């Protein structure tokens, strides 16, 4: 049986920040143990160092609707697809904050709504080959009957449109590729698998 590796099987030779702006990037030289024994040669990597983030799927079980947001994303600037993406409400976790509290804050800032009955879906690493970012993913109950508008913090350059869609239309948007970012896909597919339980939990018969 092969050994399970840990941090003790990595040797950091050098680590230095090469960018400290809106993003922080470290340059790291390291060695690590190999599956077939011995050590690798010296490897150089750039690492995007980011705080944790939250995402929340906002669902209205009475109207069978999902509240999403649309905003400009720089990561899509070289894509043929429009850089204005349909996504979940999301945001960064500041030092000392609890992820569930951040969900409430971000929902108020980005969509002017306050989700209740939060369900933790999962935690996952967004792109561990190059980034430290960990995502805390939730589902929250909202009332979409009066939802809509444009929100966001002006001092952070946010311009965020609220988009309310029927559940079946959201599934169609996933299938067509209109919704194709990881956080949204994971949460929507989770709701597909757990929708009956969620509705029974939130709307007692």
**What would you call the shape?**
globular
Number of domains: 2
Give me the CATH fold name of the largest domain: Nucleoside Triphosphate Pyrophosphohydrolase
Average of pLDDT: 95
Largest sheet: 8 strands, mixed
CATH C-level class of the largest domain is: Alpha Beta
Helix content: 10-25%
Instruction: Give the number of helices.
Output: 3
Helix/strand order, N-terminal first: EEEEEEEHEEEEHH
Return the structural class: alpha+beta
CATH architecture descriptor text of the largest domain:
Alpha-Beta Complex
* CATH homolog superfamily of the largest domain: Nucleoside Triphosphate Pyrophosphohydrolase
Q: Calculate the terminal CA-CA distance, rounded to whole Å.
A: 51 Å
Low-confidence stretches: none
How large, in whole angstroms, is the Cα Rg? 20 Å
Oligomer: single chain
Strand content: 35-45%
Task: Describe the protein in words.
With about 200 residues, the protein is α+β, with helices and mostly antiparallel strands. The protein has two domains: about 5-50, no CATH class; about 55-200, Alpha-Beta Complex (Nucleoside Triphosphate Pyrophosphohydrolase), CATH 3.90.79.10. It contains three helices and eleven strands. It has helices spanning about 100-110, 165-175, 180-200; strands at about 10-20, 25-30, 45-50, 55-60, 65-70, 85, 90, 115-125, 135-140, 150, 160-165. The strands form two sheets. Strands 4, 5, 6, 7, 8, 9, 10 and 11 form an eight-stranded mixed β-sheet that branches. The longest helix has 21 residues, at about 180-200. The radius of gyration is 20 Å and the shape is globular. The model has no long low-confidence stretch (mean pLDDT about 95).
